[in-house]
Amino acid sequence: MARWRWRRTSLGGEADRAAFRALHNASLASPALREGLTTASSERSVRHLRALLGTPAAGLGDTSGLLAWDGLGSHHRSQLAGTIGQVAETGRTMIVDQRTLVCEDGGCQVRQAIVSPLVVEDTLVGALVVGAPHTTGGLVRAADEVASWVSGQLELAELDLSRTRLMEAEVRALRAQISPHFIYNSLGAIASFVRTDPDRARELLLEFADFTRYSFRRHGEYTTLAEELRSVERYLLLEQARFGDRLQVTLQVAPEVLPVAVPFLCIQPLVENAVRHGLEASADKVDGVGRLSIVARDHDQECVLEVEDDGTGEDPERVRQALAGDVSMDSVGLGNVDARLRNAYGDDYGLVVETAPGAGTKVIVRVPKFAPGVQV
């Protein structure tokens, strides 16, 4: 007969447990602070900051005053508003005593307060307020350290916001690069069918409306490959209405990769380039046909997409310039797409372009099926 003895596990000594509590409270406060310094984020994070410091009260404020308060002594909020303004002017930690925190409650545990500045990119954006019965050198240092950590979280929030703004600006720039000639020519092609084939004219007009709605609507950073390819199909239907049999398209897509998240408008510019270059060479061919192939494959943990044309090809040096963002190159958004792929997934996931004069062009896009921070 076996006998088992159960032992209670432990985090170690009191120092270990205190470190765990501190890390736990910091992790609870972090998500709200990563949203920036607002009333809502302050209210959600301040109680965890107070627990982190182990004080009777704590508050967060911006340069205009207190945004949130947790714990005892909430009747002191109005008295501390002016102090936050002084800290905003000096950028230095201030200690507020009973001369400012006038209180008729003999049992009030908030007799003094430490107001530590919050700084983001050398700009003072607010303050952390710590209320206690009395201040000590250790508590002041702790308040400054927590304020410094909060400042770091707010700086990360600002970086996230800047990154979002940059991505939105890049998409706006890409929209501006969508050829106006394509829009005019598509409408012209639709108009040519109005009398001869009204039903087709109506279908093409609906496709054009859906294409422009997708391309120019307000959109998040990412979409699914299925949505992106649907827009590409609309674009190709409109181009084939213009060029007829001069443009032949082959599309092969593995169903497994359709839900994969990709940067918004990352495929259509590559297809537009391929159509342009493929048709440029079609006049010199015996059959006068430009051919375009789009293949999306499931490859282990990645989706691999290839856009290939049998056109004139390109000098590799000019391709390098286009990928570097040279706007003088005759390429719709190649550098823009490459930069957004690298920003989203890392430098290993930039565009790969295989080309040479007279040899056509193949553009290869690799994206991971799952990537941190990438979701539709």
Word description of this protein:
Residues 44-141 form the GAF domain. It holds the Pfam family HATPase_c. One of its GO terms (molecular function) is kinase activity. The structure is a single chain. By secondary structure, the protein is α+β, with helices and mostly antiparallel strands. The protein is 48% helix and 21% strand. The chain is built from ten helices and twelve strands. The protein has a five-stranded antiparallel sheet with strand order 2-1-5-4-3. Helix 5 (180-196) crosses helix 7 (225-243), helix 6 (198-216) packs across helix 7 and helix 7 (225-243) runs parallel beside helix 8. The radius of gyration is 30 Å and the shape is elongated. The model has no long low-confidence stretch (mean pLDDT 82).
Q: Which runs of at least 5 residues are low in confidence (pLDDT < 50)? A: none
Given the structure, what is the number of helices? 10
The count of DSSP E runs of length 2 or more, i.e. the number of strands, is: 12
Q: How would you characterize the largest beta sheet?
A: 5 strands, antiparallel
What strand order characterises the main sheet?
A: 2-1-5-4-3
The Rg value, from CA coordinates, equals 30 Å
Content-based structural category: alpha+beta
The level of helicity is: 40-55%
**Gap between N and C termini:** 57 Å
Order of helices and strands: HHEEHEEEHHHEHEEHEEHHEE
Percentage of residues in DSSP E strands? 15-25%
Mean pLDDT: 82
- Shape call: elongated
